[in-house]
Amino acid sequence: MPELHQVLKDALMQEDCGWNMGSFGAIAEFHHVYGDPAPQEHAGLMQVTPRGGVRIDNLEGVRPVAYETLSPKPHRWTQAVSLCLPHDAAAMNQRVALTALGPDEDALRDEDRGTQLFDTGLGQYQADFCIRTADPELLEVLNENAGRSLFEHGNPAMGAILKHHPHRVLLTRLGRVEVYQMIGGPDTGGKSPEGPHTHVLPKLLRAERTHSANTPIPEGWVPCCGVHPENPVIGRLGEDKVFNRAAFDAFQKLLSTWGAEAYCQGKQAVWELLETEIPAEDAVEPDTREGRAGWRNGIRQWRVLHGPNRLTEAYAERFDRGTEQTDPENPGH
């Protein structure tokens, strides 16, 4: 049985592992960029680069939930481990106005400690979405408008934030993700920079959800950190890549320990049918949503593991044509 602390320690040293913290609509992501320096050893559960970083300070009460989701692209699937807390234990401050928090003494890097931290007041249940700056011009605007909603008509603070690109600091009960790169928008050609970045999507925020409905988080639990081990078929930039069997096998171990039983049973059932060459017309898919997701991903993975043939094409044609429970490939959005 994998030990959570060691799994996370190992993952922090793997360049192809991504991390995120946030909620449905407000998220901070940490990824390595091809060509950047290799991950460094740090005390505790931490990784930091010139572009951003992640640190996990607390694992008390954490339930890891491993899962795979269906990609809209029929030759792919996504995978992740959500570090979850019981609903009450996951609650953060849920501030709804811009709030000065004082110097950030817990910053990942020495040079950022003492820099001023502000909660942007997005009111998210399990995450305080903050910014951090030492810029005098931005500080003046932020301090003048503290106590107001960033979305209030005529509030100049949002425009000032987009102009000055402060650090973003996402805080949860488990730790933090910090992003030092520019905010995606007009100054970045309208797209998020490669590597660590943040998304704030007001339309999704209004749903007041802690996570996507397609993420199979058990009732009563809230995801507070997402871990995205190397995907065996998708590269860091979202490109197709040559199948990495070692990455596949490593995640299957996590899935068998921390995954939903119905999902794993659905996948195992279709693998057994394909192994014994039972015709697709004689196969009966599971009757639960999670079981069907496992069944469909099982077909996709079997094709990658063993190569496509007439039998797997027949299974895909019969069972893997719909869009039930497909998730975007950008984790956590």
Please characterize this protein's 3D structure:
Pfam families: DUF6925. This protein is of the alpha+beta class. It has a domain at 4-89 and 210-319. It has helices at residues 4-11, 87-90, 136-144, 157-164, 202-205, 245-258, 261-275, 289-306, 310-319, and strands at residues 18-23, 26-30, 45-49, 52-56, 63-70, 77-86, 99-103, 116-119, 128-133, 167-171, 175-179, 197-200, 221-228. Strand 10 (167-171) and strand 11 (175-179) form a beta hairpin.
Q: What share of the residues lie within helices?
A: 25-40%
Number of H/I helices: 9
Overall mean confidence score, pLDDT: 93
**Beta fraction:** 15-25%
Can you list the strand order of the major beta sheet? 3-4-11-10-9-8-7
Keywords:
6-stranded antiparallel β-sheet, 7-stranded antiparallel β-sheet
Offer a concise description of the structure.
It contains nine helices and 13 strands.
Helix and strand topology:
Elements: H1 4-11, E1 18-23, E2 26-30, E3 45-49, E4 52-56, E5 63-70, E6 77-86, H2 87-90, E7 99-103, E8 116-119, E9 128-133, H3 136-144, H4 157-164, E10 167-171, E11 175-179, E12 197-200, H5 202-205, E13 221-228, H6 245-258, H7 261-275, H8 289-306, H9 310-319
Antiparallel strand pairs: 1-2, 1-13, 2-12, 3-4, 4-11, 5-6, 6-13, 7-8, 8-9, 9-10, 10-11
